[in-house]
User: What shape does this take?
Amino acid sequence: MIVFAYSHNDSEERYHTSIGSVYMAVENMNLACLVEGLGSCTMGAPLEIKEDVDRFLGVDQLPEYQKGELELLCAMVCGYPDHQPPKAPPPNCGSCDLALV
Assistant: This one.
């Protein structure tokens, strides 16, 4: 599955607040995928072809898009992995320099 995440930047909401909300929602979806055993990846590459993505999805026909209020921020893919990637070994806490707060 691919999720394209857009920010709705209207005059009543602050630009950075809208963008921050979208990125937090995408990160929460990544965490939910992890809990459910799904693989996920957030990608910025679709921004390289955002006009093509907007046209393909039909977003460019929306009034909000035509007023400049919709902005593609990233895409996220998720699905069941076809293999089990190796997990990083746990740190040796006797010799690590991490401080727990």
User: Anything to note?
Assistant: Residues 38 and 80 are 5 Å apart (CA to CA).
